[in-house]
Amino acid sequence: MTRKLLTGNSAAAWGARLARVDYIPAFPITPQTEIIEDLAAWTDRGEMDARLVTLESEHSMITAAGAAASSGVRAFTATSSQGLLYGMEMVYTVAGWRTPFVMVNVSRGLASPITLESDHNDIMAARDSGFLQIHCATCQEIADGVLIAYRLAEHPDVRMPAIVNLDGFYLSFTREPVDLAEVSQASAFVGEYDPENLQFKGNSPLSQAMAVLGGGPYSYFRYEAHLAVQRALSVYDEIIDEFEDRFGRRYDMIDSYQMQDAEYVFVMLGSFSTKARDAVDSLRDAGWKAGLLRPRLFRPFPQQQLGQLLQGRRAVAVIDQNISMGMGGVLHSELATALYGASDAPLLASYIGGLGGRDISQQEFFAIADELRQADERGEVAAPRLLYTEHELTEMRKLQAIAQAEHAEIQQN
Amino acid sequence: MFRIRFHGRGGQGMKTASRILGTAFFKAGYEVQDAPRYGAERRGAPIFAYVRADRTAINERGVIDRPDLVCVADDTLVGMPAAGVVQGMDAHTVLLINSHETAETWQQRLNTEASILILMATEDVEDRAELPYIGSRCAAAAAALTNVIERETLAEALTEELGHLPDDVIGQNRDIALRAFDDMAQHAGLVAPGGMPSASDYDRPEWIEMPFENAAISNLAIHAGATSVMVRTGLWRTMRPVINYPKCSGCAWICSTYCPDGAINVRADGYPEIDYDHCKGCLVCVAQCPPHAIESIAEHVAREQEAEASS
User: Fold this and answer.
1) Residues in chain B closer than 8 A to A176 (CB atoms)
2) Number of structural domains found in chain A
3) Complex ipTM, two decimals?
């Protein structure tokens, strides 16, 4: 095993290489492009025995990945943000084909306004598609997550495509030390892909019947897919035990930090959660019983497990790096569902933070903990809060003043 | 934890500087995180990169807001608010500036409590994006100031990170970097690792409730004219495609169709013409031209030739 500095993007490419993928349909988009650049260089130099093909869009790219997986080869692809949305028709469609492959999504805010920086609304848009979702917080988790995702996706009880999600900039362009498994070890873990009854052949074209008449057959197929995604929860636990045996790293479906006696808990997805780890340490130094939960597995959603872990806590702050317009944070809603009706459920507060890569400071974590304590004393939580400071609004007002002036000038001319 | 920021312009090698220093820390047994922060992603635009190094795993992420060392490759950025050079500096910070001016001058100008050191500026260059070896020099100076990276370790890291370059270029970078390392040796240890913020004594964030504002205010539409014509993106070009008309077959569509910026027009006589005000120099046309009638030459060479021709 070699330990080296890798960006999140390189770690993702290494994951694909170690999984010995056969086929990589590709389309570039910032901040994901480095992944396919690495894979292209390796395939070009013969260091990786795979075929990389550049497609004309994400729509075609995802179709190609699903079709390739249907023909029995292991497929890998990657996208981000607008690219994921552009391919969204096929995200839902290939999940219905029940074709297992892995797609890395590098999270980036959605237009409009357009940005390059991290935000989870892109991956949330794929939430209901049938794709499994593994969310990463470190570069190490990305490389390992791709291997785990293949095992999970290709498991005969599951057989669904999977997305491994990582945050743009905060992981994609950030180097961290990563332990890379030997190819032989990784191969032994991932195993061979058995496509079972998926038997497309390029040399004998066939049509796949995907149309149904009436809601009866439709409901059957859709609900079977749902049950398969849910089955991935128990399959994940088996896989993760084996992964730990082989590589010594443990990836529970929920990453728990300092939860043994925690009264006040942060719940969040992705790389910003490592900042929350630091905040938990500092809060504990200051006498707080703080803790952190981070679902690695977001689809299937481990709601029962989260409910158990949160039972009896005083108050919980869900920090969503996404926003469902007209509703609020998606993770908050899902956690509320998980806790509804449970005895001894904690107070549940909602925070929106980190939209478009907006940083979350340590002081903000401390202040959130303080608000949780106040909520606990009052017995009810405050209204959902956007993490946004007076200074930020002042800066926004300056931009608006420039826009007003520009607007007035255009009106005059 | 060591928290170090490098500020420069696109093309000066700030990302490379952060990688050299990151790899040097890693080789010295540290846990490391290094990253560039791109803005406009073009040569000459302000860019910064940062390095964190600690004895234990690093959980902190994103832009460094309390730097122990700020290293500035290009002193014209110091006074530019958008470049954010002085952001988060305090008495604990060391500011290292590549400049012809003295530390005292900068101390007066900035009125800062930070310690200021000067990385002696080399010869003047016309194109600020081409300060030679500045990335390697910044990385080496930073390494010396931390006093936890051996000279040899720094050299190994530099060789590793510049491995894609020819040997003589790596050698020049190494020699010049090691000179910067030695120059800073007298200040070794001046840059000290900073601590973690305290949860018992901190400035509470001044959060506000976002006010509701109707769309006429919250989404003021700014519809300007055809501004992209007015932006001379040709200034970004470092390589210039030049059509060799005697070889051009006048197929009239391949280069102009492939040009991603619509910067190749077809003249009335059926031959293409490159709009150098807007050609960014991607050289797609050079690759696509069937009779290989488009050559590429370095932009500065092209400009010298133009100057000669007009004199």
Assistant:
1) 32-33, 58
2) 2
3) 0.95
Cα A52 from Cα A156, distance rounded (Å)? 27
C-alpha to C-alpha distance for A106 and A28, rounded to whole angstroms: 12
Total Cβ atoms within 10 A of residue B70? 29
User: For residues A233 and A301, what is the distance between their CA atoms, to the nearest angstrom?
Assistant: 8
**Which are the contacts of A305, defined by CB distance < 8 A and separation ≥ 6?**
A253, A254
Question: Do the Cβ atoms of B31 and B117 come closer than 8 Å?
Answer: no
Per-residue pLDDT band for A175 (boundaries 50, 70, 90) equals very high
Q: What is the pTM of this model?
A: 0.91
Indicate the Cα dihedral angle B97, B102, B104, B106, nearest 10°: -40
Model confidence pLDDT, tens digit, residues A177-214 = 999 999 999 999 999 999 988 888 878 877 776 788 89
Cα separation, B31 vs B142, in Å, equals: 17
The b-or-e profile of B91-124 (16+ CB within 10 A means b, else e) is ebbbbbbbbeeeeeebeeebebebbbbbbebeee
Least confident of A57-66, B78-87, B143-152: B78-87
pLDDT at B121 over 70: no
The residue from A230, A247, A264 where one domain ends is A247
Question: How far apart are the C-alpha atoms of A237 and A104, rounded to whole Å?
Answer: 21
Sign of CA dihedral A182, A104, A136, A297: negative
Tokens representing B215 are 């769309």
Number of inter-chain CB pairs under 8 A, A vs B: 113
Q: Do A281 and B196 touch (CB under 8 A)?
A: yes
CB B70 within 8 A of CB B95: yes
Q: d(Cα A25, Cα A75) in Å, to the nearest integer?
A: 8
Q: Which residue has the higher pLDDT, A160 or A200?
A: A160
What's the Rg (C-alpha) of chain B?
24
Task: Tell me the residue range of the domain where B171 lies.
Answer: 2-187
Residue type, position A97, single letter = W
Closest by alpha carbon to A130, among A109, A166, A103? A103
A275 with B59: Cβ contact below 8 A: yes
A34 in Cβ contact with A9 (< 8 Å): yes
Residue owning tokens 């959902």: A384
Q: Residue A408 domain-assigned?
A: no
Q: Domain check: are B62 and B127 in the same one? A: yes
User: Nearest CA of chain A to the CA of B266: how many Å?
Assistant: 26
Q: Do B207 and A362 touch (CB under 8 A)?
A: no
Domain harbouring B303, CATH code: 3.30.70.20
Residue with tokens 């990688």: B19
* Domain that includes residue A267, residue range: 255-391
C-alpha–C-alpha distance, residues A230 and A232, integer Å: 5
Calpha distance B14→A98 (Å, rounded): 46
- Number of Cβ atoms within 10 Å of the Cβ of A118: 30
